Amino acid sequence: MKFKVSLDRPAKLITVSIVAFFAVLSWLGMLHYFTLARPAMIPLLLLWVIVLSCFLLSPRYYVVYDDRVIIKRLWRSVTIKRSEIRLCRTIAPNEIGALTRYFGVGGLFGYFGKFLSSNLGSLNMYATRQQNFVLLHVNSNRKIMLSPDEPAAFTRKVCN
């Protein structure tokens, strides 16, 4: 069964702002391409590589099969065997505590990567919003946080 994910308002604002800013920088850079030193364009190209990477790695939707849960991304989807899921439950944002991003993205096309929660410890997040959280405890002592648009239906499907 396929579960939709949609960006929340802050993620939409961050995404649109960053992409628009880089588009303006690119346009200005191209206007002055022949008058400026060409190596000055390298940082701009690197910024676009980062934006493209975030787009390709952001969660698009979740699919729950009988034997696995797949976090679909345009590049490198994540598969979790259902037999390895020890516990799944919805979680309120206040249960998370302070959340520190130490190798992840915090708003550009979603919230994904490695995060550290003051209440839950280290976790992998594949979310598109700052609510509707579902926490999966996996056998390998990993915690995975997702944000389907319908968390109750997702939890029922994964836990049963």
Residue share in helix: 25-40%
Total of DSSP H or I helical runs spanning 4+ residues: 4
- The Cα radius of gyration reads 18 Å
- In percent, how much strand structure appears in the residues? 35-45%
Quickly give the structural class.
alpha+beta
As laid out across the biggest beta sheet, the strand order is: 5-9-10-8-7-6
Structure summary:
With 160 residues, this protein is α+β, with helices and mostly antiparallel strands. 32% of the residues lie in helices and 38% in strands.
Tell me what you see in this structure.
- The chain contains 4 helices and 10 strands, in the order βααββββαβββββα.
- The protein is elongated, with a radius of gyration of 18 Å.
- The chain has 160 residues and is of the alpha+beta class.
- Helices cover 32% and strands 38% of the residues.
- It has one domain.
Topology:
Blueprint (H helix, E strand, L loop, with lengths): L1 E3 L4 H23 L10 H16 L1 E6 L3 E6 L4 E4 L3 E7 L1 H4 L2 E9 L2 E8 L3 E7 L5 E6 L3 E5 L4 H9 L1
Key terms for this structure?
single chain, about 160 residues, alpha+beta, 6-stranded mixed sheet, 4-stranded antiparallel sheet
